[in-house]
Amino acid sequence: MQAPAANPQQAGLVAASADMNAYSAAASFLCSPPMAQAFAHASAQSLTGSASNAIIWAAPGRDNDGTWSAGSPDRFTIATPGFYEVTAHAGIASTAAAAECWIQLTTGSGNPAGPGVVTSWWHGSGTAFAGSNLFIGSAGLIPVLIYATDVLQLMVQPANTCTTAQLFTLWGDWSHRLVSL
Amino acid sequence: MATVPSFPSFPANDANLARLNQLSAAVAFACRCPVIFHLYKTVNQPVASASQVPVSWDAASADSDNGWDPAKSSRYTARTPGYFCCDWGANVASSGVDGELQIALRVTTGPGNPGGAGTVTYVSARSDDMGTSSQQESLVTSATTPYLYAGDYLEVVVACFSQSTTITAGWQNSGNNDLNGFPDGSPGFTGMLVSLGP
User: How far from chain centre, in Å, is Cα A141?
Assistant: First the structure.
């Protein structure tokens, strides 16, 4: 998405229509910022015990910046640089016994640090009651500037090999939203 | 319903007052977030074992769009369409019997939704083992909703397994402690319109 640019004006000059339309585009951008909202793929996904697993997402209901693709359904590849707030949760079968999750950021080729640098944010965890599926999640502002081509994922590490599962008919959810350029 | 802005298009040499005020209103809308709510509880609420209970809210510290009706106390009904970022949490009394606490946000479509009324979708959930103690078990969660049409409503639902319990009121009351000894995350539900969409 094209981030807005509002040029400063000078006293005594008549504002050009291009500048005024830039202000209008900036207001529109603020009212409908880059954002995705998706649910987890509604079938059991195998999760390896004591290892990190990326959760797979179904086609988003909202993804106005084209961050998800069917070819890489476990990834949201950022298109507009900025600071993002992320919330994500996943359902885990009770056979996991316990599980931890986190938001993983992997830099892409457009990041000044170079591609492939991995950081993790907002770890959450939970313990399953016998026979009941577990639902864990991570949420928060990712406090580093995210560049175009950087990738966001929800990672899950169960104690035991298991599958994803549903709770309240929900398998998992994801949202991210640009909160500052 | 909040007045939803529109975004003017300026032809050359025609930045007239109406268009400038239209632009000003749009900027004010984005900066002031005119749709925000916070609901909470002052009265305890029982939860039977293995039943799903919508949390009844009995007080609002903010409700700028009049989406909460005390006569339908569990619901926040969208008046202004869009995407909402919500945070919610509830704490329940634990006991010597182990069990599981589950909490979720669910959307029920209203008559203004193109898909028809009465369709239920769960937006996000959390669950955890309650353990065996006489403290409080708290869960908090955040999520962004799907696009809400005017008349769609949100509810926080709680379920407990293996024991009946009580959603414990006492907003900002530090007298109740959770399993780790921290002040409880007493029941609350906040939301804010974050995108007009569609």
Answer: 10
Is pTM beyond 0.80? Reply is: yes
**Tokens encoding A4:** 């807005």
Quick check: B189 and B77 in contact, CB under 8 A?
Answer: no
Q: Name residue A125's beta-bridge partners.
A: A100
The token duo for B79 is 């008046």
Q: Which of residues 61-90 of B touch A (CB under 8 A)?
A: 83, 85
Residues of chain B with pLDDT under 70: 134-135, 170-186
- Residue B132's pLDDT is 80
Tell me if B144 and A87 make a contact (CB, 8 A cut-off). yes
Query: Which of A35-39, A58-62, A175-179, B172-176 has the weakest average pLDDT?
Result: B172-176
Q: Tokens representing A161?
A: 């090999």
Task: Report how far apart, in Å, the C-alpha atoms of B61 and of each of A123, B171, B190 are.
Answer: 30, 11, 10
Contact residues, chain A, for B145 at CB < 8 Å: 37
* Cis upstream peptide for B81 (omega within 30°): no
Taking CA atoms, B44 is separated from A35, A173, B186, in Å, by 37, 30, 10
CB contact under 8 A, A27 and B10: no
pLDDT the model gives residue A9: 75
Residue B171 confidence (pLDDT): 46
| ipTM of this complex | 0.89
Site of tokens 């910046």: A65
- The residue among B126, B104, B117 whose CA lies nearest residue B52 is B104
The mean pLDDT value for A139-160 works out to 96
Cα separation, A129 vs B159, in Å, equals: 13
Contact A62 B100 (CB under 8 A): no
DSSP A30: H
